[in-house]
């Protein structure tokens, strides 16, 4: 863990920082899958019924998407959105899966 993350965790709390990290990993998964399908943000937006600005903000980590938004994106990308309900300490229980 970097010094910045440690200090930020002390200020905002570990749970808050962990939620940001999970959101960042999900955003990266969306962007990676979109690019692997050779889709532009506009094409993903059109396929999911979302504004292009929403897709861009999610991928940039500016917006925390709601579950229904993640479901629309996962359907448009052709990958399932899985929340398995496990209570482990890692975030492997929530991901976009191939």
UniProtKB/TrEMBL annotation:
Highest classification ranks of the organism: Bacteria, Bacillati, Bacillota, Bacilli, Bacillales
GO cellular component terms given for this protein: cytosol
Species, as recorded: Oceanobacillus halophilus
CDD domains found in the cross-reference section: HTH_XRE (cd00093)
GO MF term (any one): DNA-binding transcription factor activity
Alphabetized UniProt keyword annotations: DNA-binding
PROSITE patterns listed in its UniProt record: HTH_CROC1
Top-level lineage group: Bacteria
Listed name of the protein: XRE family transcriptional regulator
Residues of the HTH cro/C1-type domain: 30-86
